[in-house]
């Protein structure tokens, strides 16, 4: 399978590499990737910007992706081959103080698919089933690849800021 990999901890070290299709281990599934977004984090990692020294190399990049399950590992329940899904980008331990408080994004042991281990800029990707989100059949998989960044905005505006219909809000940005 073709995979876009960051090969070295230097700016611009990307290559399209042919790798074996991953096999699911216990608790894991394999998705055939339909679409993968390019996040600002991917660009920072590609450029080897300060703060991105943690990126494990070589690694297949990409954490904003959606696809269809092609293989299921031992112990996985609630999923089936052919089911559509996207991923939760940040994986967490579930036991540290932040996780116990419901702030998994602040987990002391958090890792990000596509930066710490192989992500979705490939034909196939392996992921723990507990980090999958099912997708409705009517949602286009290219659009579904944007569920992760959209979820960040929804969480911030809807859950954290408690903005409600009728409230006044200001949206700023470079674009």
Describe the structure.
- The protein has a five-stranded antiparallel sheet with strand order 9-3-5-6-10. Strands 2-1-4 form a three-stranded antiparallel sheet, with no helix packed on it. It has a two-stranded antiparallel ribbon with strand order 7-8.
- The chain has a single domain, classed as Quinone Oxidoreductase, Chain A, domain 1, CATH 3.90.180.10.
- The mean pLDDT is 91.
- The protein contains four helices and ten strands.
- The radius of gyration is 17 Å and the shape is globular.
- The protein is of the alpha+beta class.
- The protein is 17% helix and 26% strand.
- It has helices at residues 40-47, 97-100, 141-144, 147-160, and strands at 2-6, 14-18, 28-36, 59-60, 65-72, 84-87, 90-91, 111-112, 124-128, 132-134.
What is the structure about, briefly put?
This protein has 175 residues and is α+β, with helices and mostly antiparallel strands. 17% of the residues lie in helices and 26% in strands. Strands 9-3-5-6-10 form a five-stranded antiparallel beta sheet. The protein has a three-stranded antiparallel beta sheet with strand order 2-1-4, with no helix packed on it. Strands 7-8 form a two-stranded antiparallel ribbon.
